[in-house]
Structure formats: C-alpha cells, structure tokens
Write a structure and sequence with these properties.
44 residues; mainly beta; 45% strand; Transcriptional regulator
C-alpha cells in the first residue's frame, strides 16, 4: 500500500490464482482498492 501503517478496509473479492495462490481485494472507506496475496492482509 506504500503506507507506514495498516489501513482498514472491507474484503470485496477473493480469487484462487493458479500462479500466486489466493489473491484478496479490499476496499477502504474512501474507495481505494488494494489487492495482493493473502499474506499481505490481516484481520482487524
């Protein structure tokens, strides 16, 4: 995310990518969408 701290968001999609594994997409309250491998995300 290029942020110094964790950002809260809501998971909007989860896909099983055959090349990198599980990919999670999350949307923040201000509408920014982040996505990446599941280990880059953690529950609040």
């Amino acid at each position: 995310t290029m942020k110094d701290d964790w950002v809260d968001g809501r998971v909007i999609d989860i896909k099983d990518n055959p090349f990198v594994g599980v990919v999670v997409s999350a949307k923040t309250d201000n509408g920014v969408i982040f996505f990446g491998r599941e280990e880059l995300f953690k529950p609040a």
